[in-house]
Design brief:
The complex is a heterodimer of chains A (455) and B (492).
Chain A: H1 2-23, H2 39-62, H3 68-87, H4 91-109, H5 115-146, H6 151-160, H7 164-181, H8 189-196, H9 199-221, H10 228-231, H11 238-258, H12 263-287, H13 292-326, H14 337-340, H15 342-356, H16 362-373, H17 380-405, H18 419-437, H19 440-454
Chain B: H1 4-25, H2 27-54, E1 63-73, E2 76-84, H3 88-109, H4 114-133, H5 137-146, H6 148-158, H7 163-191, H8 200-203, H9 213-226, H10 235-242, H11 245-270, H12 272-277, H13 279-299, H14 303-328, H15 332-362, H16 373-376, H17 378-391, H18 398-413, H19 422-438, H20 454-472, H21 475-491
Antiparallel strand pairs in B: 1-2
Classes of the chains: A mainly alpha (455), B mainly alpha (492).
C-alpha cells in the first residue's frame, strides 16, 4: 500500500509542476531539441498523468499484497513515458518515450495472472510490437528523405518535397499511431485487451495511453499535407484519408457497441467510436490549415481528448467498482444498480450521458466544436454522419441507464461502495459537470494548445 | 440590464437539490416546499407577462433582455442572451402554472421515489424556462436537451407497465430529431462567412436565402418530432399512455409547445424566405396532422390515448396557423397559433390530469369499462364534461377563439382550406361519444367509487377558469402577439 501512496503523491506533485510549467512557460528547454515545454505538451501531460493518478488511487482498493510494489512501479514508468511523449519534438525521443509507455502496460494487462488476462496481454504485446516496428520504419524513411529526426524539419521537408516515399512514410505513421489511437481498421486488439486486462488497467489504456497516440499523431501527421504525390489523384489527400477513417471508426465502434453483452467490451467499442469523433478535427485541419474551421476543429480534437479522458475514466472505473463488488461484468449486473450502488450508478450515468454528447456536460462542447468544424463545406456529409452516429450511440448509453434506474435487480441488497473509488468518482464527475457548465476555461486552454502547435 | 429572466431560469434549477433534501427528510414538507417554489416561479412568470403586455417590445425586439459574454475564443463567440416577447411570455406563464398544478396533482398519484420526482420536476421547469427565453441557438439547444433527461426518468421510473419501451422510444426519437436540428444551426454558423453568429436576434433577417433551405429542413425535423407532426408522432401515444398523469400534463402542456415555439421563433424567424417558398408544404402537413389526429382519436379505447391523439390534432392547428400567416400575410394566423398553444396546454392538461384521477378512483381508464360517472362521481363527471368542452373548442372557452382565428387565417390564404372547419366537428363528435358512454350511461351496480375532493375541484378550476377569462380579455395575449406576427410576415 505504501508504494501506492508514494506514487499518488509523486503523480500529484508532477501534475502541479506540469501545470505551473504550462501556465508560466520559461521559453528555453534544458533538453535541447529533444523535448520542449509547449502548451500542447502540457495539456497531454496533464491529462495522461491525471488519469494515471486516478487509476492509482482507485487501485488502492483492488491491488493488495506482495505484488503491489511491482504494479505501482509499472504504472509510474508508463506515466513517465506518456509525459515525455507529450513533450517530444524529435522522432527518436518520441519513439523512446513510446516504448517506455508501452512496455509496462503489456505487463500490467496480464497482471491478473488469469488465463483471460494473460491472453489479453500477449495479444496486446504482439500488436504493440508490430505498431512500434511500423513507427520505426516510418521514422527511418523520414530520416532518409529529410536527413533529420526533428519533427519540424521532417514536416517541412515532406511539405517541400512531397515524394512518393514521403507519402508512404506518412501512411506508416498513420498505421503505427492508429493502433494506439484505436482507429478502424487497427482496432481489433482493443476489445479483447480491455476486457481481459484488470479493469483499472483498461482505464489506463483507454483514457491515457490512447491519448498518447493522439498527441504523437497531432505533432507528426498534421504538418504533412499531401498524399497526392503518391497517387497523382486529388481524391487521396490527407483530409480525405482522415475523413474515411473517421467515418469508419465511429460507425464501426457504435454499431459494434450496440451488440455487446459485457460492459468492458461495450466501453471498449464506445472508446473506438470516440476516437472517430476526435479524428474529425484532423479532417478540418488538413482540409485547409489556415481556415477558421481548422482552428475550431483542432481545438475540438484537443478538448475532446481532455473530456474523453474524464468521461471514459469515470465509466471504466465505475465498471471496475461493479466488477470488484459484484464480481460480474455482464450487463445483467447493471439491472437496478441505482439501488445497490447509487454513487457508482450516478457516476456511470453522468459519464455515459456526456459520452453521448448530451448538454450541459463536457462531452457536448467538444463534440459541438468538432461537428461545427465540418458542418458546412466539402465535408458536411461527415458532420451529418457524426451527428447521426451520436444520436445512434444514445441508444446503447440510454439502454445502460435504463437498466440501472428502471429495471429490477435480482438481489436488491445495498452493496458497499469502495471509498477510494468514491473519491475518484467525485473528482471526475466534478470535472465533467464543471467543464460542461463553465466551458470557457477548458476551451481556451485547448485553443491555446492548438495554436501553440504552429504558433 | 434586468436579471428577472435569469432568476426565472435558475431559481428552479437551483431549487431542485433543496427540494430533494426536504422531501427526503419529510414527505409533506417537501410537497409544501415544492408548491411554494412553484408559486414563486409562477409569480415571476406573471410579472414577465405583465412586462411584455404593458410595454410590448417593437417587432424583432425583446423585453427584459440580458446579454453576457459566455464562451469566447477565436473564432467562436457565444453570448448568454435571454429575452421575451409576445410569443414566449404566454408559454412561460402557462408552463409555470402547469408545473404548480402538476405538483399538486402528484400528491396522491406518485407514491415512490418522491425526492427524485419532485427535484426532477424543477430541473424540467428550469430547462423549459430556458428554452422559451434563450436568444442564442446553442443556449437554446442546451436547454432543449436538458428537458429530455428528466422526462426520460419520469416515464421510465414512474410510468405504467410498458414504461421501459416508452422511455427508450421517447429519448431516441427526440434526441435524433434534435441533433439534426443542431447540425442545421452549425451549418448556418459556418455559412455566414465573415460574420458568424449563433445569436437569434443578430441572425434574424440577415441569413442569405441560399443558406436557408438545408437548415430549414434540419430544424423542421427537430421541431416536427416535438410538435409532433404526423408521421413523426409515433413516440407520443406511447409516452403519454405510460407516463404518470401529472407528467402527461407537462408532456402535452409544455413539452409539445417547444415544437410550436421552435417553428415560430426559428423556422420562420431565421429562415423566412425559404419558409415562405415552402409554406404550402407546411400547410398541407399541418392540415394532415389535424385530420389524422382527430380520426385516430375516434378509434381509441384508452381515455388517455384518445387525449394524446387530440393533442396531435390541436398542435396541427399551431403549425397550420403559423404558416397561414406566412402564405398570405393575415396576421391572425400567428396570433391564433400562439393563442392555441396557450389554450391547448390548459384544456388538454386538465383532461390528462382527470384521466389520472379516474384511473386512481375507478381503477381503469378504458372507455368501454367506465360507466355512469354522472351518478357515481358527479363532481368528476362535471369537470370531465367542462374540460371536454374546452378541448373541442366550444365557447365560452378560449380554445374556440384560437381555432377560429387559425381557420380564418387559413381561408384567407387559400379558400379550400376551409375544409379544416371539419376538424373541430370530428373532435366534438368523439368527445361527445366518449361523454355519452362514460358519463351518461347507467352506473354499474355494486361498484363503489369515491368522488374527488373539493381541493381537487379547485385545482381543476385553475385550469379552466383562465380559458373563460381569456375569451373575454383575449387582447391580453393577442396584443403582445401582434408585433411578433407583423415581424414574421415582414421578414418573408
Amino acid at each position: 500500500m505504501l508504494a501506492g501512496y508514494i506514487l499518488a503523491g509523486v503523480l500529484a506533485a508532477s501534475m502541479l509542476l506540469i501545470a505551473l510549467a504550462t501556465l508560466y512557460p520559461s521559453g528555453s528547454s534544458p533538453f535541447g531539441d529533444l523535448i520542449s515545454p509547449d502548451q500542447l505538451g502540457g495539456v497531454f501531460a496533464l491529462v495522461t498523468v491525471g488519469v494515471t493518478l486516478a487509476v492509482t488511487v482507485a487501485s488502492f482498493e483492488t491491488t493488495k499484497g506482495s505484488s503491489a510494489p511491482v504494479y505501482y512501479s509499472l504504472l509510474s514508468f508508463t506515466a513517465l513515458g506518456m509525459a515525455l511523449l507529450a513533450y517530444s519534438r524529435d522522432l527518436l525521443m518520441l519513439f523512446v518515450a513510446w516504448e517506455l509507455m508501452s512496455l509496462p502496460t503489456y505487463a500490467l494487462a496480464g497482471y491478473d495472472k488469469k488465463l483471460r488476462s494473460n491472453e489479453a496481454a500477449v495479444k496486446y504485446a504482439i500488436i504493440g510490437a508490430m505498431s512500434s516496428a511500423i513507427i520505426l520504419y516510418a521514422i527511418s524513411l523520414a530520416y532518409g528523405l529529410t536527413g533529420s529526426t526533428q519533427i519540424s524539419a521532417v514536416v517541412a521537408g515532406f511539405y517541400a518535397h512531397p515524394t512518393a516515399l514521403a507519402g508512404i512514410s506518412t501512411l506508416l505513421f498513420v498505421a503505427g499511431f492508429g493502433f494506439k489511437m484505436s482507429i478502424v481498421p487497427f482496432h481489433m486488439w482493443i476489445p479483447d485487451a480491455y476486457e481481459g486486462a484488470p479493469t483499472t488497467v483498461s482505464t489506463l489504456l483507454a483514457a491515457a495511453t490512447k491519448k498518447a497516440g493522439f498527441v504523437a499523431a497531432i505533432r507528426v501527421l498534421l504538418g504533412i499535407t499531401t498524399l497526392y504525390a503518391v497517387t497523382q489523384n486529388p481524391l487521396f489527400t490527407m483530409a480525405n484519408v482522415f475523413a474515411v477513417l473517421a467515418l469508419l471508426t465511429m460507425t464501426v465502434g457504435n454499431v459494434a457497441a450496440l451488440t455487446q453483452k459485457s460492459m468492458t467490451r461495450l466501453l471498449a467499442y464506445s472508446s473506438i467510436a470516440q476516437a472517430g469523433y476526435i479524428l474529425i478535427g484532423f479532417v478540418a485541419f488538413s482540409a485547409d490549415p489556415t481556415s477558421n474551421a481548422a482552428s475550431i476543429g483542432l481545438t475540438g480534437s484537443i478538448l475532446h481528448v481532455i473530456n474523453h479522458a474524464t468521461m471514459k475514466g469515470a465509466a471504466f472505473l465505475a465498471a471496475a467498482a461493479v466488477l470488484l463488488q459484484l464480481k460480474r461484468a455482464d450487463l445483467g449486473a447493471y439491472d437496478g444498480l441505482a439501488r445497490r450502488m447509487p454513487i457508482t450508478a450516478f457516476t456511470m450515468t453522468i459519464a455515459l450521458l456526456s459520452l453521448a454528447g448530451v448538454p450541459p456536460l463536457s462531452g457536448f462542447w467538444s463534440k459541438l466544436l468538432l461537428f461545427l468544424s465540418v458542418a458546412n463545406g466539402p465535408f458536411a456529409w461527415l458532420a451529418l454522419a457524426a451527428i447521426l452516429n451520436s444520436a445512434f450511440s444514445l441508444g446503447y448509453y440510454a439502454w445502460i441507464i435504463k437498466r440501472m434506474f428502471v429495471d429490477e435487480p435480482e438481489n436488491p441488497e445495498r452493496v458497499r461502495e469502495p471509498i477510494w473509488f468514491v473519491v475518484v468518482f467525485a473528482v471526475l464527475v466534478g470535472l465533467i459537470v464543471g467543464i460542461g457548465l463553465f466551458p470557457q476555461q477548458a476551451i481556451s486552454f485547448a485553443s491555446g494548445a492548438a495554436s501553440s502547435l504552429f504558433g | 440590464m434586468s436579471f428577472v429572466l435569469s432568476v426565472l431560469v435558475f431559481l428552479p434549477l437551483l431549487a431542485a437539490p433543496s427540494v430533494y433534501l426536504a422531501t427526503r427528510a419529510n414527505r409533506r414538507a417537501g410537497l409544501y416546499l415544492s408548491l411554494a417554489l412553484g408559486a414563486v416561479v409562477l409569480a415571476i412568470a406573471l410579472y414577465t407577462s405583465w412586462a411584455v403586455y404593458s410595454s410590448p417590445p417593437a417587432p424583432g425586439q425583446y423585453q427584459l433582455s440580458e446579454r453576457y459574454s459566455w464562451i469566447n475564443f477565436r473564432p467562436v463567440g457565444l453570448d448568454f442572451h435571454l429575452g421575451v416577447d409576445g410569443l414566449s411570455s404566454p408559454l412561460l406563464l402557462v408552463s409555470a402554472l402547469l408545473t404548480v398544478l402538476a405538483i399538486f396533482g402528484s400528491r396522491k398519484l406518485i407514491d415512490h421515489h418522491e425526492p427524485e420526482y419532485y427535484s426532477l420536476i424543477f430541473l424540467f421547469e428550469g430547462a423549459i424556462m430556458g428554452v422559451f427565453t434563450s436568444l442564442n441557438l446553442i443556449l437554446f439547444y442546451v436547454f432543449w436537451e436538458v428537458v429530455l433527461i428528466p422526462m426520460f426518468f419520469f416515464i421510465g421510473v414512474w410510468g405504467g407497465p410498458r414504461r421501459k419501451y416508452a422511455a427508450m422510444k421517447f429519448i431516441i426519437f427526440t434526441y435524433a430529431g434534435s441533433t439534426i436540428m443542431l447540425l442545421g444551426f452549425l451549418y448556418v454558423y459556418l455559412g455566414m462567412g465573415s460574420s458568424p453568429s449563433f445569436d437569434i436576434q443578430d441572425l434574424s433577417g440577415h441569413i442569405p436565402v441560399a443558406l436557408q433551405y438545408l437548415p430549414l429542413l434540419a430544424s423542421f425535423i427537430g421541431f416536427a418530432v416535438k410538435l409532433p407532426l404526423v408521421p413523426f408522432h409515433t413516440w407520443l401515444p406511447d409516452a403519454h399512455v405510460e407516463a404518470p398523469s401529472p407528467i402527461s400534463v407537462l408532456l402535452a402542456g409544455v413539452l409539445l409547445k417547444m415544437g410550436g415555439y421552435g417553428f415560430l421563433r426559428i423556422s420562420m424567424g431565421l429562415f423566412p424566405q425559404a419558409s415562405y417558398q415552402y409554406a404550402w408544404v407546411f400547410l398541407v402537413l399541418g392540415l394532415f396532422s389535424m385530420f389524422y389526429g382527430a380520426a385516430a382519436a375516434i378509434l381509441q379505447k384508452d381515455l388517455k390515448k384518445m387525449i394524446a391523439f387530440t393533442s396531435i390534432n390541436h398542435m396541427g392547428f399551431v403549425l397550420f396557423g403559423a404558416y397561414a400567416t406566412l402564405a398570405y400575410g393575415n396576421l391572425l394566423g400567428v396570433q391564433g397559433a400562439i393563442f392555441q398553444m396557450f389554450a391547448h396546454a390548459l384544456a388538454v392538461g386538465s383532461l390528462f390530469m382527470l384521466s389520472g384521477y379516474i384511473q386512481h378512483q375507478a381503477g381503469t381508464r378504458e372507455i368501454p369499462s367506465l360507466h355512469g360517472l354522472g351518478t357515481s362521481m358527479p363532481r368528476t363527471a362535471t369537470i370531465l364534461v367542462l374540460a371536454s368542452a374546452a378541448a373541442m373548442g366550444l365557447p365560452p372557452f378560449a380554445s374556440f377563439l384560437a381555432e377560429f382565428l387559425v381557420i380564418a387565417a387559413g381561408i384567407s390564404a387559400f379558400s379550400l382550406t376551409a375544409i379544416s372547419i371539419l376538424v373541430p366537428v370530428i373532435t366534438a363528435g368523439y368527445f361527445l361519444w366518449m361523454i355519452r358512454r362514460v358519463v351518461l350511461s347507467a352506473p354499474e351496480p355494486g361498484h363503489e367509487v369515491h368522488d374527488m375532493g373539493w381541493a381537487d375541484v379547485a385545482s381543476f378550476a385553475a385550469y379552466l377558469v383562465p380559458l373563460v377569462v381569456l375569451i373575454v380579455f383575449s387582447y391580453l395575449i393577442l396584443t403582445p402577439a401582434a408585433p411578433v406576427a407583423a415581424y414574421l410576415w415582414g421578414l418573408a
